[in-house]
Amino acid sequence: MNNKYFALRHGQSKPNVLGIVLSSLDDGKKEEYTLTKEGEKQVEFSVKKAKESEVLGSDTIIYSSPFSRTKRTAEIAKEVLGVNSDIIFDERLRERWFGDWEKTDHSAYKKVWADDEKDPEHKEKNVESTKEVLDRTMALVKDSEGKYKNKNILLVSHGDAIKIMETGFKKISPGLHKGLSIHTAEIRELK
Fold it and tell me: Where are the chain's structural domains?
């Protein structure tokens, strides 16, 4: 790889607090589903820590999912790091589509993840398969590899999208993403 990739999961969001699955791009862009005040503090703390330890700096390139919760997370990261370039919003980093589980209780995730382990290409209840998520997120990485050299690239996204993308870096089945948990506002280097 020409670049170093870091994933930042959005901070605590209103859907997290409501305990609902919110994966539709149309609803996800609505401001009513952005970060909570606590989520904003989480992101600020996490990014300041990365800046102080010189993991990320003002020359970081920021890509973000266009959902309001990731957009706000990326804006905070840009401000804290002092990045002058624009945030690049890319739908390939959007939340995984949870199909018929949309706007249901977040306990549905466990059911989907159990199916993921059995079959990374399952689309039970119209869920986007882990294979599809892997293909779109790694296509963004491939494009970035052709566009930049020796850069730190911050990918602001969602739990499942990040974990599934990480399986691509680790070269393991995307169906095994559940074992790669990532907390809200956590920054992780993808290797």
Answer: 4-190
Three-class secondary structure assignment of 15-37:
HHHHCECCCCHHHHCCHHHCECH
Domain covering 4-190: architecture: 3-Layer(aba) Sandwich (3.40)
- Token duo for residue 17: 């607090």
Residues 158 and 96 sit within 8 Å (Cβ to Cβ): yes
The Cα-based distances of 124 to 18, 38, 106 in angstroms read 24, 34, 16
Question: What is the distance between the alpha carbons of residues 112 and 13, in angstroms, rounded to a whole number?
Answer: 21
Averaged pLDDT for residues 54-61:
97
Q: In this prediction, what percent of the chain has a pLDDT beyond 70? A: 100
Q: Is the model's pLDDT at 182 over the cut of 90?
A: yes
User: Which of these, 154, 153, 178, 150, lies nearest to 164 by C-alpha position?
Assistant: 178
Segment (H or E) for 153: strand 152-157
User: What is the C-alpha separation between 65 and 93, in angstroms, rounded?
Assistant: 5
Place of tokens 């990261």: 77
SS3 call for 190: strand
